[in-house]
Amino acid sequence: MTELHRNLIAGEWVGGDAVPNINPSDTNDVVGNYARATKADAEAAIAAAKAAFPAWSRSGLIERHAVLRKAADEITARKEEIGRLLSREEGKTLAEGIGETVRAAQIFDFFAGEALRLSGEAIPSVRPGIGVEVTREAVGVVGIITPWNFPIAIPAWKIAPALCYGNTVVFKPADLVPGCSWAIVDILHRAGLPKGVLNLVMGRGSVVGQAILDSPDVDAITFTGSVGTGKRVAAASLEHMRKVQLEMGGKNPLVVLDDADLGIAVDCAVNGAFFSTGQRCTASSRLVVTEGIHDRFVSAVTEKLRSLVIDNALKQGTHIGPVVDQSQLEQDEKYVAIGRDEGANLVFGGERLNRETPGFYLQPALFTEASNQMRISREEIFGPVASAIRVKDYEEALDIANDTPFGLSSGICTTSLKFATHYKRNAQAGMVMVNLPTAGVDFHVPFGGRKGSSYGPREQGRYAAEFYTTVKTAYTLA
Predict the structure, then answer these.
(1) Residue 42 pLDDT > 70, yes or no?
(2) 4-248+453-477, what's its fold?
């Protein structure tokens, strides 16, 4: 009988009603049964976090460091096991699953170090005989709401800094992928966190997420997900005057200029647009290509796509796994149909695939003759679907790249230092890549975008302190 994985509230594993976690590579495979929290469970978790905050926010730096370091060490030691779990529940290839698990361990290790590097400033006042101290303190109870596409990395990069800086946490993972979230909460719980510091409430956003939004005892919410839901999080948070951090959608461009190295450009496009089944907010779904290289580029990308193996995420040799579930598969197919109806030319893919195991398999889709005004070029599809947009020159390419309501990641492939330098300065995005895929970032530097992609302070690295702490200025008469 499949084990029941319960919610963690006030240091106790609780909950009864559960739903199966289904493998998108093999819908006959039940990854596990995971309890669904009720509104009352979420409220109990918030109360537990509030009660635990005074002691944890004043805990010793060594205590916080030790918990985060133990978590990093255990995740590293179990990277193959947890990576396999990730691939089973989300559909990433096993190599990607293990890689994401290692990244989560690196994040916990980084913030274990940050716990020992907390600092402030001593500043002389403009008034004689007065000293000024500027310090950072924990915000309070932090609500963490994460998406399904990075089921261990995104929870890690929110939970680790929250704990590092002395906050307590109420954590709601995506309903589709509770397995990795349960695993890291279990690891942190056993690493020695006091009761109530970290609470896990799995379940529906309409129930658990709403309870977090409605609570006046939640001091900050960090959310990654859709634009629509992000706007609801922001609106609900305004009523309570709480801090809010939102990471939402992207419609990221990859500009390919005539002088680009064709092999590098093709690798950047295929990796950025289609790997992880295109289910990355940083995916390069708009390929903005100047006319001198356009046809050679499209031909080379098409040939590369023909060589890729789309199959069970756990099977050796698979390059791209399945779409995460039936609903996402249908959405991807809907956008393939929209692209055709709008007049774009589907040069490759877009068809469901049958494999040895029943799953949500989709052949990567590449459109040409797309315009930047088409829906497939404006709206985030969140699947292995990309469109090539032909442009005259660099100036038009830059205009098209910036003509989007989003601004997360933006890339260019060129051998020109002049164009690369100009693009880095003028791309309207939070992150810019030169001769690299738009997807794929480091864990120790800021992550985030502009316009409709992000709201609030950046995530990751030392910049995480901007969200997870509040600044205090203290004056003392000598």
Answers:
(1) yes
(2) Aldehyde Dehydrogenase; Chain A, domain 1 (3.40.605)
Rg over CA atoms, the chain: 23
* Token code pair at residue 448: 């985030």
Cα-Cα end-to-end distance for the chain:
69
Catalytic residue, candidates 247, 333, 380, 459: 247
Q: Where in the chain is the domain with CATH 3.40.309.10?
A: 253-434
CA distance 247 to 230: 8
> Which pLDDT does position 185 carry in this prediction?
98
**Angle, helices 94-115/61-77, rounded to nearest 10 degrees:** 160
For the segment 273-311, what is each residue's pLDDT rounded down to a tens digit? 999 999 999 999 999 999 999 999 999 999 999 999 999
Superfamily grouping for domain 253-434: Aldehyde Dehydrogenase; Chain A, domain 2 (3.40.309.10)
- Location of each CATH 3.40.605.10 domain in the chain: 4-248+453-477
Instruction: Tell me if 15 sits within 8 A of 6, measured CB to CB.
Output: yes
Which residues lie across from 447 on neighbouring strands? Answer: 459
Total-model pTM = 0.96
Confidence check: pLDDT of 1 > 90: no
Catalytic-labelled residue, pool 180, 268, 281, 413: 281
The answer to whether residue 164 is catalytic is no
User: Is residue 268 among the annotated active site residues?
Assistant: no
Mean pLDDT of 42-64: 97
The DSSP call for residue 447 is B
